[in-house]
Write a structure and sequence with these properties.
- It is a single chain.
- The protein is α+β, with helices and mostly antiparallel strands.
- The protein has a domain of about 140 residues: NADH Oxidase, CATH 3.40.109.10.
- Helix content is about 35%, strand content about 15%.
- The radius of gyration is 18 Å and the shape is globular.
- Belongs to the nitroreductase family.
- It comes from Metabacillus fastidiosus.
- This is Nitroreductase family protein.
- Keywords: Oxidoreductase.
């Protein structure tokens, strides 16, 4: 039995229109983008935990696995999350059937500070987003939320650093968004590759 579920084999039409690469990459990486329009279709637990399982297999310094995923998937849990999202983000994210707060433990099991906790947890978010794309599910990372309120409402320990709330769901109609957001509901482009790559100069 294949371990690859619903593989993405080609670019979606909207991605093909808005994203071009200088070098060949698997379409999976381009088909991953961050929409704001979500349908009311529920995410199955199997798919949700498949997405989180993939995140959990990210690379980790000393195998500390500092990432933590606080999951809201029912009405009562989602209402708590909605309380600490800022109004702009809540206006669209409250339609997503699942919200996941990604945090990281700053302290290793031996009591020392984990200097790689943010780097490792960013890798976990990347794995999460790619696995969701493989399943035909969209994600959007939200940085605009009240962290202090989240700590209080969720009773989170101080050694956790909060990074982003991830909206997870199936794509909805662009027309369901506020008009100010509809024009932004498309894949964005990237800087030219040469702007972000710097080779070490050779000694003369």
């Amino acid at each position: 039995m294949s371990l690859i579920i619903n593989p993405v084999e080609k670019l979606t039409p909207e991605v093909e229109q808005h994203r071009k690469t200088a070098y060949s990459v698997n379409p999976l990486f381009l088909n991953r983008w961050s929409p704001r329009a979500y349908s009311n279709e529920k995410i199955s637990d199997d798919d949700l935990y498949s997405i989180l399982e993939a995140a959990h297999w990210a690379p980790s310094a000393y195998n500390d696995q500092p990432w933590r995923f606080i999951v809201a998937k029912n009405e009562q849990q989602l209402k708590i999350f909605h309380e600490f999202l800022n109004p702009y983000n809540r206006s669209w994210a409250e339609k997503a059937p699942v919200l996941v707060l990604i945090a990281s433990n700053k302290v290793r099991d031996n009591g020392e500070t984990n200097g790689a906790h943010v780097f490792d947890t960013g890798a976990a978010w990347g794995h999460l987003a790619i696995q969701a794309t493989l399943l035909g599910i969209s994600t959007h990372a939200i940085g605009g939320f009240d962290k202090e309120k989240a700590y209080t409402l969720l009773n989170l320990p101080s050694e956790f650093e909060l990074h982003a709330v991830i909206a997870i769901g199936y794509r909805g109609e662009k027309g369901s968004l506020d008009p100010s957001l509809q024009q932004r509901e498309q894949p964005n482009d990237r800087r030219a590759l040469e702007e972000v790559i710097f080779e070490v100069p050779e000694n003369k």
